[in-house]
Amino acid sequence: MTAEQAVSELFSLCRQQAGASYIGEDISQLEHMVQAAELAQADGADDELVLAAFCHDVGHFCTPLTAANSMAGLGRQGHERVGAHWLRELGFSERLAGLVARHVQAKRYLCWRDAAYLSGLSLASRQTLDWQGGPMTGEEAALFEADPLFADSLRLRRWDEAAKVPGRPLADLAPWQALAVRVRLSAAV
């Protein structure tokens, strides 16, 4: 699959999320994705990390949601692993897929580490935390802190939480798609 084909498949699926509710929030799934990427870019993240912010929740919708994998109407259980696997299948880098795979771990870590972070979660995010294993234990946190993607995973998670602003105009997707092609092409090198 070429970079253009992989990105076309990704963005075709993402465009379908323009009208899809972002689980328990007052914005669409696509609005959330774009807002997360905009926050990453504004924070000076590299292209791969920006695209990871855009794609972090792709696991909610890249494969069908069923009664067996639903978090009681709050999205797909294990969406971080499903999304990471799907992105790898499209030929994206291990780093990008790894960041997607770790964004739930980052949430669990921050909830363990920072009481203010935990209390600042949206209602939907607090509800899904239970499905995701709750705050980490000290042992889990120590292992996560040793992960080479630890710092970038925390950055991505903070953008994820901040990317829930209702009524914000949706940016044109063409620049994000061009960025995705560049990132996918660099993964093939």
From TrEMBL:
Residues 31-108 form the HD domain. Transmembrane segments: none annotated. It comes from the Bacteria. InterPro entries: HD/PDEase_dom, HD_domain, OP_Dioxygenase. This is HD domain-containing protein. It comes from Aquipseudomonas ullengensis.
